[in-house]
């Protein structure tokens, strides 16, 4: 038995022994993406309040990098075509099961990409995202949908794509955001100065 299988069975046995945790972990495994969306929104808000162009570039790239990582993961998963444990193994606890290939995990790719992207915005948000990503990775194994190697590869893949994309596209993003800042949509990037909105009194 491989180390990956041993870890999977250990977590699955833990799942069998903790039925009271099933609805909580299953809910997070399925809908934890909402938390990552909230963290991305917090990253944008933090960069906007700081009026920091560098942070804003990272904040804008974070969700884009996540989508790019997920898109790139599809052909990789199709090429590997790994059968999920919930389909391949018997006598295990299965709380959720998909029919698509399991390696790398889409949820873990998303979590890894968001974590790396937010780390570039603000390290505290990166830490929160990293904790959320670790819980997401664990939850996907806990419910029987993935092997540990699926989620580990997914987190690493998502983070690498996000960081590499940011390094490559950062100059282009800076120019695009600079142009947007000069339009009415610039309010989404930099808070408007209240003083500039106060009309000047006309001299008599």
From TrEMBL:
Membrane topology summary: Multi-pass membrane protein
Gene3D superfamilies: Phosphatidic acid phosphatase type 2/haloperoxidase (1.20.144.10)
Cellular compartments annotated: Cell membrane
Entry GO MF terms: hydrolase activity
Domain spans labelled Phosphatidic acid phosphatase type 2/haloperoxidase: 54-166
Keyword vocabulary terms for this entry: Cell membrane, Hydrolase, Membrane, Transmembrane, Transmembrane helix
A cellular component term, taken from the record's GO annotations: plasma membrane
Segments traversing the membrane: 20-42, 54-72, 123-143, 150-169
Top-rank taxon, per record: Bacteria
PANTHER family in the cross-refs: DECAPRENYLPHOSPHORYL-5-PHOSPHORIBOSE PHOSPHATASE RV3807C-RELATED, SPHINGOSINE-1-PHOSPHATE PHOSPHOHYDROLASE
Protein name: UDP-diphosphatase
């Amino acid at each position: 038995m491989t180390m990956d299988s041993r870890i999977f069975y250990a977590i699955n046995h833990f799942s069998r022994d903790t039925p009271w945790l099933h609805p909580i972990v299953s809910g997070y495994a399925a809908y934890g993406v909402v938390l990552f969306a909230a963290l991305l929104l917090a990253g944008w808000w933090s960069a906007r309040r700081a009026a920091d162009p560098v942070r804003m570039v990272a904040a804008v790239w974070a969700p884009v990098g996540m989508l790019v990582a997920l898109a790139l993961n599809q052909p990789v998963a199709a090429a590997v075509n790994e059968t999920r444990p919930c389909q391949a193994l018997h006598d295990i606890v299965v709380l959720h099961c998909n029919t698509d290939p399991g390696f790398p995990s889409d949820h873990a790719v998303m979590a890894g990409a968001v974590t790396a992207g937010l780390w570039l915005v603000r390290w505290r948000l990166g830490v929160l995202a990293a904790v959320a990503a670790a819980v997401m990775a664990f939850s996907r194994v806990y419910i029987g949908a993935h092997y540990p190697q699926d989620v580990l590869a997914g987190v690493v893949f998502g983070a690498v794509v996000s960081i590499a994309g940011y390094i490559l596209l950062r100059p282009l993003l800076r120019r695009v955001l600079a142009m947007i800042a000069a339009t009415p949509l610039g309010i989404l990037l930099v808070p408007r100065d209240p003083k500039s909105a106060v009309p000047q009194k006309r001299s008599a």
